[in-house]
Design goal:
Rossmann fold; four-stranded antiparallel sheet; 15 helices; 15 strands; globular
């Protein structure tokens, strides 16, 4: 324990204030008071990391010093607040370890009555779930001329999505490519890799479905992006070409288990080695990622790779890599078109997409291993992210060579997509654009928005490697 704000700090794992309170009511009141110092990038001032124990958002710490004076003894000031019983100043890695140790495995479970029951018919009379209808995915398929059968027009060799998550597991809605010329699968399992724990589970990006962390998360998120089972289930960009990478066992990426190295290596392999033009990252680091992650994000941005990342869930701020200005950060909404209560938010969010009771594929990891679908507990900006990365696939396919001719393999491709996605987004009721971005993704309007003049686009000059303030 340290009691000085001037303690030595590891740039990758900054000192974090950890506050203990006597009860939850006191914590709620404290959170409301501290939120006044949060600025415009924080979802909540306090993040629970244990019983009546809370980690203070970095932006709140900065805001306190800005508003009350840079010479303020923040430790003593916090300790004197009503309801606070103890304050510690911990290295970020230690604080995050405490949070990590208090998290149960998040596995998802099939509805016991009818796990393969498709969702109720949508307003177009189809078998598509509410989230697909909200973002206009079926109408977008019509624009692209897909008849719901056969190979879709976006399943092109030049359009690949790097999916960085916990790995893959077989499911009827995901057709694995077996590595042979005759295979028609769209999940290119042999081109991906396990860069997290290959010594324990092999080099293929397969999720071992362990008891800790978020087993099966890779399957669940990827199904929303590209899954397809005729008459039963569809993702946003059915049968899109996917290169999967196992980069973590837990969607909260953190230095406790050194998963930032896996994230950086996964980004490098997906972009440099495998030519992925879109990256879908339904994971986040609430602390500071290592500089290697920033460097590969910068390189991908300069190459014109569209990195779509989650804002985060119930974290004190938008998490990395979504917090990087050079990525597309996605927040979440419910079926009411209002922000999903569990999502992180702030000025770094570009737009939102469905994140509540999302219908997705599952494997029951509780013992039976059966495959099915459910909307139960289908919550999180992880799912919002895959809606936007799927939309990026459709956008690339719709415009085709015109995008190449206008923007080439440069940062302009990323900014053109960001522009079109934000201009075409549809705000919900009483929309707060300062915290939830331009609005809710609507793919038909995205596809029909005119591509911007390359000369009108502005490069994000804040390098990801340096964007840690």
């Amino acid at each position: 324990m340290t009691d000085s704000i001037d303690s030595p700090r590891d740039d990758a794992n900054p000192s974090m204030f950890v506050i203990q309170t006597s009860n939850a009511r006191g914590a709620a009141a404290l959170n409301r008071r501290l939120a006044a110092y949060a600025g415009d990038e924080t979802g909540t001032a306090l993040q629970s990391i244990g019983p009546q124990e809370w980690m203070l958002a970095r932006t709140v710490q900065k805001g306190i010093r800005t508003k009350l004076g840079s010479n303020l003894d923040v430790f003593t000031w916090l300790a004197g607040l009503s309801g606070v019983t103890k304050v510690e100043l911990l290295n970020g890695k230690i604080a995050l370890q405490r949070w990590y140790d208090n998290q149960p495995a998040a596995v998802g479970s099939l509805d016991s009555a009818s796990p393969r029951q498709p969702p109720a018919a949508g307003p177009q009379g189809g078998w598509f779930s509410w989230n697909l209808e909200m973002v206009g995915a079926p109408a977008a398929w019509d624009i692209l001329g897909w008849d719901r059968a056969g190979k879709p027009p976006w399943q092109q060799p030049s359009i690949r999505v790097g999916h960085l998550d916990t790995g893959m597991t077989p499911h009827p809605c995901l057709e694995f490519h077996d590595g042979t010329a005759a295979s028609t699968g769209h999940v290119l399992i042999h081109e991906g890799a396990n860069v997290f724990d290959p010594a324990d589970h092999g080099s293929l990006p397969l999720d071992p479905l362990l008891s800790h962390g978020t087993p099966g998360h890779g399957l669940r998120t990827l199904s929303v992006l590209c899954g397809f089972q005729q008459g039963i289930f569809a993702g946003v960009a059915p049968r899109a070409n996917i290169v999967p990478f196992r980069v973590t066992n837990f969607v909260v990426v953190n230095p406790v288990v050194n998963t930032n190295n896996g994230v950086a290596e996964g980004i490098r392999r997906a972009t440099v080695d495998k030519g992925c033009r879109v990256l879908s990252m339904s994971l986040g680091d609430p602390c500071f990622p290592g500089s290697a992650t920033g460097r590969v994000v910068d390189r991908a941005y300069e190459m014109g790779v569209i990195i779509v990342a989650a804002a985060g869930n119930v974290t004190s701020e938008v998490t990395f890599p979504g917090r990087y200005a050079r990525t597309i950060a996605v927040g979440g909404v419910s079926a009411s078109r209002r922000p999903w209560a569990g999502g992180s938010y702030g000025s770094r969010v570009d737009l939102c997409a469905p994140a509540d009771d999302v219908y997705r594929a599952l494997r029951d990891v509780g013992g039976s291993g059966r495959a099915g679908y459910s909307s139960k507990d289908g919550d999180g900006t992880s799912y919002a992210t895959t809606h936007v990365s799927g939309a990026a696939v459709l956008w690339l396919a719709h415009h085709g060579r015109k995008i190449d001719d206008l923007y080439g393999n440069t940062w302009r491709r990323v900014e053109a997509f960001r522009h079109c996605a934000k201009v075409s987004a549809r705000p919900g009721p009483d929309w707060d654009s300062s915290n939830y971005g331009a609005g809710i993704l609507y793919i038909p309007d995205l596809l029909q928005t005119s591509l911007p003049d390359p000369a009108a686009l502005t490069k994000v000059e804040d390098k990801a490697e340096d964007d840690l303030a």
